[in-house]
Specification:
Three copies of one chain form a homotrimer.
Chain A lengths: L1 E6 L5 E4 L1 H7 L6 E6 L5 E7 L3 H14 L12 H10 L2 E7 L2 E2 L5 E7 L5 E8 L1
Antiparallel strand pairs in A: 1-8, 2-7, 3-5, 3-8, 4-7, 5-6
Chain lengths: 126, 126, 126
C-alpha cells in the first residue's frame, strides 16, 4: 500500500493528485489502480484537469446542491458527509506498462469538503 | 462469492453492514474487497458510523435532493432509482491480513431507498 | 483491454451497453469486470433496464439537479462535468464462468451528458 499526504488550504477544494498517483504506482506493471480516501468528509473523482475553471465550477455546484434541511449531527459538517457519499471514497483506473491509462482530458482530483486539513490518500495496483 | 441478507425496516434507511462485510472476507488474505448490491433501488456507501445522526442526516438530504420533475416510470419509485445511480451499486476497500483497511471513522452502509424489503449484498476479495 | 464505441444521438442520453460489456468479457473466467469511461462529460451507471421509462426519468432528474450557479468554464458544459463526477467514470461487476453476475433487474448504462458524440468504453476483467 502506497500512501501520500494532501494538505488542503480551503474549506472546499479540488486538488489535482494525478502526478502523485502516477508516482505511487511506478513499476506496478499491469492491473487496476485503486485510489482510496480513508476520510468521511473528503472524496476522490476523475474529471477534466486542463482548465482550472472546471474544478472551481464543480466546487461551487457541490455547495449549491446541498439541500436546505435541518442537520442533526453536532459537528455541523453533514453537508461534507453528504457530498462525500455522492462523489465516492475511491476511483479505479486501468494500469498498463506501469502507467495510468486515463482518458485524454482526465485527471484524478482529491476533493476536500471540510478543510483545511492534512489528509491521506492510499494507492495500490491489484 | 459471499452473500448476506439485509432486512430493512423503513422506506429509506442506512444499515451499517461493516461487521457483515468484515465477517464475509475473513481469511481472504490481501486484495481489494468488492461490496456489490444487486438491486436497482438500493445502494452502498462508505461514511461515518460513529454518530448515528450522520446516517439520519444523509437520508434526509437524499430525499430533499430529489428534484420536482414528472416521473414516467409506472412503479412510482424513480426517486429511488435516481439516488441509487448517484450513490452507486458498489464500493471497494483495501484488504490486508484478511482485514478491511478502512479509515478511522469509516463504516460501510447499505442504503435502502425503496423499502422495507429483504435485500442481498455480495462480497468478494479480488 | 477491450474497447467498444458508443455513438450517442442526443445531448443527454442513457445507452444500455450491457450486451457490449458481456461480449467484451467472453472467456474471461472469473474476476471483477471494470467498465471505464475515458471521458469527462460522460459517465457509467448500473440500474434498471427493463422499463425504458426509468432511463428517461433519470436523464430528466439529472438535468433538474444541476444548480443555478454561475459557471466559469468557457466551454459552457460544466453541468456535464458536474453530473459525470456525481455518477462516476467506472463501475465494477462480479464475473463468474465468463459471465457478468448482475442482479435480476440490473443493466449497465453509458450516460451521455454532452452529446451527441462518438464515445469509447474500456472493459477488462481483473
Amino acid at each position: 500500500m502506497n500512501q501520500f499526504e494532501v494538505r488542503t488550504e480551503s474549506h472546499r477544494q479540488m486538488v489535482d493528485v494525478t502526478r502523485q498517483v502516477a508516482a505511487a504506482i511506478e513499476g506496478a506493471g499491469e492491473g487496476i489502480c485503486h485510489v482510496y480516501v480513508p476520510h468521511t468528509t473528503a472524496a476522490v473523482v476523475i474529471n477534466e484537469h486542463a482548465d482550472p475553471d472546471v474544478a472551481r465550477d464543480l466546487i461551487a455546484a457541490y455547495e449549491a446542491m446541498v439541500p436546505d434541511v435541518h442537520f442533526a449531527h453536532a459537528e455541523g459538517n453533514s453537508d461534507a458527509h453528504l457530498m462525500t457519499t455522492l462523489l465516492g471514497s475511491s476511483v479505479t483506473v486501468p494500469v498498463e506498462d506501469g502507467r495510468l491509462r486515463l482518458g485524454t482530458w482526465q485527471g484524478i482530483f482529491f476533493v476536500e469538503l471540510d478543510g483545511p486539513r492534512s489528509r491521506k490518500v492510499w494507492v495500490k495496483v491489484y
